[in-house]
């Protein structure tokens, strides 16, 4: 990298990380001040662990994200399989467009539209409030579905179509062929889709804000409610924990990626060596 | 006979795999959108009205600016402010993000993955936290001003201005501009660049007639990924603009909190229509560029 690029990169990194660094530093502040650092302490972390509402919201968020990821992964994978084998072009085009809607629409439109429908249906049945964990889960599964479908579809297109047919010729039932041959082939797409669905659900605030009710708080909603009033460094302690969880997760996945490529290199080297030996053996055989 | 059997099986598979998703998509993607239109054009007793839409265009309020009272169109002002701030933040993200994407795409494997991870970390932090961090920095008694005081520079007043809202928007959506541009640049065939150089192009010419045109798909998706959330955002201006610079998202949220669902739906409906127009214009622009 040239000097100019290095300086520019440093400036961008400063811009991206200075605010996060400030949160981390002030989460260890002894005093309540958010601009003067008076001494190191874990005071605000202890406060956070005593905050029941926040702890419940963490549990809620995980419960919601796991359920939404499971629902969207199962339904999305099935939908991708169906869409991939669909021959009627107009149907396929219609499904593709509908799948794109939640990704293009701003979150606030998705949130408002679902909320209006839930409220209307709720009123039809004479309920004062129809928003609860169920409506939140429906909303999350809905905006997670396109991510799963778009991860699984390309894997299906890459797959050799002869594989499931061969399995069936060898006596598998269609269901067996699907579960034992197709699913392992498209597994990487399913896993990536599920992880994406899980993280999208964890991170969502806007759609949750409009579709939750009955006091069911997710972590982002809890953060929103915390920042409505004057904030104590307790929120910073929470942000710091979130930051380190994300950092660890990203580093682990990246390191695993490195290992994968190392494994790939090792295998390639082994294959090259094997080819060489084979050639040598052939040559020797010819000489004999 | 075998063909009809596989055909029937295929139809059966299609039926079982597609039915749940199709029903779900109709119920929870399409029908809710119809509900926005339905609420937008009805009053509290669900009878047809254009009042909500006309309220958006005609409602006025008085503001006092420098001691002078002025009548303004409440929602039109909010609407054009959203459009203006979103456009400015998109341009800033593009101008500052493109070089970063280029640097990333050009760097070696190890540096590239470190930079990529670094860009992704802030993306994964919740945007509420990111926005709030800037509130801490920009406050009148915040970190920026105590830092300036140490350097002997007089304090600056940023919080509660349009610039503060802009800083928040740029910070929140900056990585979303870099990522798509980077992924297009990283996949670009370097032989094209070498060919242009061999044919006598200087660096500026290589950029303007090879690299940039080829990266347009990435630029376009970067623009949509920044423009759409920044037009429709709420919270950022509430926190960094001290509630003085309401944006269209804040207007929708405000009406929702006040339980004026019909008017909230009307604003959302207008936002949807405008976004469709913006997307169509962007698409047309991209197509004409691609042809040229």
Describe the structure.
Chain A has 288 residues and is mainly α. Chain A folds into two domains: 41 residues; 207 residues, Orthogonal Bundle (MetI-like fold). Helices cover 82% and strands 0% of the residues of chain A. Chain B is mainly alpha-helical. Chain B has twelve helices and two strands. Chain B has a two-stranded antiparallel ribbon. In chain B, strand 1 and strand 2 form a beta hairpin. The longest helix of chain B has 39 residues. Chain B is globular and about 70 Å long. Classes of the chains: A mainly alpha (288), B mainly alpha (292).
Instruction: State mean pLDDT of chain B (0 to 100 scale).
Output: 88
- Strand content of chain B is under 5%
Spatial separation of the terminal alpha carbons of chain B: 53 Å
The percent range for helix content of chain A is: over 70%
Identify low-pLDDT runs of chain A: none
Q: The CATH topology of the largest domain in chain A, please? A: MetI-like fold
* Shape by Cα distribution of chain A: flat
Rg from alpha-carbon coordinates of chain B: 25 Å
Assembly annotation: heterodimer
Order of helices and strands of chain B: HHEEHHHHHHHHHH
- What is the name of the CATH architecture of the largest domain in chain A? Orthogonal Bundle
Which geometry of chain B do the CA atoms define? globular
The major β-sheet of chain B equals: 2 strands, antiparallel
The CATH homologous superfamily of the largest domain in chain A is called MetI-like
Number of helices of chain B: 12
Residue stretches of chain B low in confidence (pLDDT < 50, at least 5 long) are none
Keywords:
heterodimer, A: 288 residues, MetI-like fold, 2 domains, 11 helices, 82% helix, 0% strand, B: 292 residues, mainly alpha, two-stranded antiparallel ribbon, globular
């Amino acid at each position: 990298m040239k000097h100019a690029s290095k300086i520019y990169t440093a400036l961008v990194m400063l811009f991206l990380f200075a605010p996060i660094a400030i949160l981390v530093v002030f989460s260890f502040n002894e005093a309540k001040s958010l601009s003067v650092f008076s001494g190191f302490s874990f005071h605000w972390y202890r406060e956070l662990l005593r905050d029941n509402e926040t702890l419940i919201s963490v549990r809620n968020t995980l419960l919601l994200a796991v359920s939404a990821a499971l629902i969207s992964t199962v339904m999305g994978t099935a939908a991708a399989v169906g869409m991939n084998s669909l021959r009627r072009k107009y149907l396929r085009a219609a499904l593709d467009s509908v799948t794109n809607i939640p990704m293009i629409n701003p979150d606030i439109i998705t949130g408002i539209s679902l909320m209006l429908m839930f409220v209307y249906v709720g009123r039809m049945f004479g309920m004062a409030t129809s928003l609860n964990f169920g409506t939140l889960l429906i909303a999350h599964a809905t905006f997670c579905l396109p991510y799963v479908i778009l991860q699984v579809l390309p894997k299906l297109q890459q797959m050799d179509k002869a594989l499931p047919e061969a399995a069936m010729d060898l006596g598998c039932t269609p269901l067996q062929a699907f579960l034992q041959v197709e699913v392992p082939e498209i597994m990487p797409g399913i896993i990536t889709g599920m992880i994406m669905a899980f993280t999208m659900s964890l991170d969502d605030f806007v759609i949750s804000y409009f579709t939750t009710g009955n006091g069911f708080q997710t972590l982002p909603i809890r953060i929103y409610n915390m920042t409505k009033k004057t904030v104590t460094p307790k929120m910073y302690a929470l942000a710091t924990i979130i930051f380190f969880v994300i950092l660890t997760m990203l580093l682990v996945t990246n390191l695993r990626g490195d290992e994968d490529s190392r494994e790939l290199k090792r295998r390639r080297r082994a294959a090259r060596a094997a080819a060489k030996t084979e050639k040598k053996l052939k040559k020797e055989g010819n000489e004999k | 006979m075998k063909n009809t059997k596989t055909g029937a099986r295929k139809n059966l598979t299609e039926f079982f795999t597609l039915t749940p998703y199709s029903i779900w998509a109709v119920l929870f993607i399409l029908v809710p959108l119809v509900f926005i239109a339905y609420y937008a054009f009805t009053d509290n007793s669900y009878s047809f009205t254009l009042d909500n839409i006309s309220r958006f265009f005609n409602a006025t309020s008085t503001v006092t600016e420098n001691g002078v009272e002025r009548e303004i169109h409440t929602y039109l002002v909010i609407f054009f402010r959203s459009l203006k701030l979103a456009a400015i933040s998109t341009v800033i993200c593009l101008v500052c993000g493109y070089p970063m994407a280029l640097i990333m795409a050009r760097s070696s494997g190890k540096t590239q993955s470190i930079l990529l991870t670094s860009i992704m970390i802030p993306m994964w932090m919740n945007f509420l936290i990111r926005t709030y961090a800037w509130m801490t920095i920009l406050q009148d008694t915040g970190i920026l001003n105590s830092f300036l005081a140490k350097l002997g520079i007089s304090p600056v007043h940023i919080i509660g201005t349009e610039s503060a809202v802009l800083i928040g928007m740029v910070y929140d959506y900056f990585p979303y501009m870099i990522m798509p541009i980077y992924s297009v640049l990283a996949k670009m065939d370097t032989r094209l660049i070498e060919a242009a150089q061999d044919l006598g192009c200087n660096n500026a010419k290589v950029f303007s007639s090879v690299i940039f045109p080829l990266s347009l798909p990435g630029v376009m998706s970067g623009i949509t990924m920044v423009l759409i959330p920044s037009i429709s955002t709420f919270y950022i201006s509430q926190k960094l603009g001290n509630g003085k610079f309401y944006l269209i998202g804040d207007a929708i949220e405000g009406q929702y909190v006040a339980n004026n669902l019909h008017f909230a739906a009307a604003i959302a409906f207008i936002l949807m229509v405008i976004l469709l127009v913006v997307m169509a214009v962007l698409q047309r622009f991209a197509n004409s560029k691609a042809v040229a």
